[in-house]
Amino acid sequence: MPRSLVALLCASAATAAFIPYYDRPEWSLQTRAFSDFRNDGKCTAAQVATLTAWVTDAIALADAAIDAITSLQAATRPYTGADDWTAKTMHRYLGIDYATGTANDYTTISGEPFILFVGFAIAELHGARYFHRLINTVLGYYTAAKNFMSGQYAPYNVDQSWIFCGDYFTEPKQWSDIAYDSTGAQIPTSPTDNTPLKLEDVPEYISDKTKGNVPYWIDAMKRYAFQLPNTLNPGQQGSTAGGICSNNNKNPQAVHIRTSDRISVITICNPMNRPSNGKNGFNLFPYDKVSDIPFAAGKNMNYYRSGSGTILHEIMHASRPDGQTPDTIANNFQQCATQTNRAAVRHSPECAVVFASAMWLQTKTNNDGDAYVFWSGVAAKP
Questions:
Q1: Do 362 and 68 meet the contact criterion of CB atoms below 8 Å apart?
Q2: d(C-alpha 200, C-alpha 210), whole Å
Q3: Burial of 368 (0-12, 13-18, 19+ CB in 10 A)
Q4: Is 210 helix (H, G, I), strand (E, B) or coil?
């Protein structure tokens, strides 16, 4: 497995910390110096603490989902206790409709019969595994995300993975510009001809021009990235969102993109496209970790959304193949429950965050001896 690099570029200045992919990010953030790539500023201690808390808690959220799903896989129907609560929550927020006995999702684990409802006819088809496959698929999403954050997994079709804080890290270029390598030297025509090449003449870049992509220089990476026009246009630090965080005039807290040349980029939007009340990608949610949120019965899952859910959401994008995690559902748990396209719910990074948060809270309250469940949308007694 290639050892890719993750870099964190904090918004206080265009600064970055290189994090070896095989180190746990929370350790690396605490031990590695931040190097400045453009200005003389450094990332603030508060920003480092936020990123550290997010990554650490996102791993805990993924673990909670993995443990709950694994327990459910080992259980038999009719489910009881925490396994029953997990199944009902999975049904509501991840679209795995085991409970209602529909032809779509009601199947079996460990060789139990599949019950197929066709009008009033009931046929048992032994060996069916649809429910089992759905659970395994969702389990794989969380496992990939956890392994990505823990430095044990290189995402499919990705050469490098980066996290940026603020989308002002690119420099738009023209195809007619002179091409430079990672050392800042002009790229010559050949070993015997020092005539500098234009970007449009570099052999490995030609296909991007043909596709209609345009070049951007990313100084932190010391390389070019290629994307559709305006997509990576830089914003202005502290005042205006760029092409990434304006995102077709949306107002995202964070964005994941995968460039045409295999770079996976997560950007924490600071500033956001339409900021209000001083909010940005770092402080949009009141609490960084789900464990910091004061527990309150009757509160819904929007109340229990933490900043760490942002990183888990974006890592769900980054750790899976491009195009398989559509953002059809915004930061709102109700949409996970009411979206009619249940397959879209299963693939939604935000619904994955909602389920993981519910599992963390369910496990915590159950272990504390005062269990609460969350499939109704609010913290309630089972």
A1: yes
A2: 10
A3: exposed
A4: helix
Element (H, E) at 257: strand 254-258
d(Cα 232, Cα 94) in Å, to the nearest integer?
32
Tokens for 99, please give them.
């409970």
Q: Which residues contact 322 (CB under 8 A, 6 or more apart)?
A: 157, 258
Report DSSP letters for 90-129, one per residue: HHHHH---GGGT-TTT---STTPPEEEEETTEEEEETT--
From first to last of the 382 residues of the chain, give the pLDDT tens digit. 333 333 333 333 333 333 333 333 333 333 222 222 223 234 556 766 787 789 899 999 999 999 999 998 888 777 899 999 999 999 999 988 654 434 444 443 333 333 333 333 333 333 234 566 788 889 999 998 988 887 776 666 677 777 788 888 899 999 999 999 999 999 999 999 999 999 999 999 999 999 999 999 988 788 899 999 999 999 988 889 999 999 878 889 999 988 877 778 888 898 999 988 889 999 999 999 999 999 999 999 999 999 999 999 999 988 887 777 878 776 678 888 888 888 888 889 999 999 999 999 999 999 999 999 999 999 999 9
d(CA 226, CA 173): 10
For residues 235 and 231, what is the distance between their CA atoms, to the nearest angstrom? 11
Q: Which residue has the tokens 């791993």?
A: 59
State the Cα–Cα distance between residues 97 and 99, nearest whole angstrom. 6
Task: Report yes or no: 60 and 347 within 8 Å, Cβ to Cβ.
Answer: no
Radius of gyration over every alpha carbon of the chain, rounded to an integer in angstroms: 23
First to last CA, the chain: 45
How crowded is residue 38: how many other Cβ atoms within 10 Å of its Cβ?
Answer: 16
Which residues on neighbouring strands pair with residue 116, listed in sequence order? 123
Full-model pTM: 0.81
The alpha-helical segments, DSSP class H, found in the chain are: 25-31, 45-74, 81-94, 130-149, 206-210, 243-246, 308-318, 333-338, 342-347, 349-367
C-beta of residue 352 within 8 angstroms of C-beta of residue 316: yes
Q: Is the dihedral of CA 93, 96, 98, 101 positive or negative?
A: positive
Pull the structure tokens for residue 57.
């808690």
Please give the single-letter amino acid code of residue 181: D
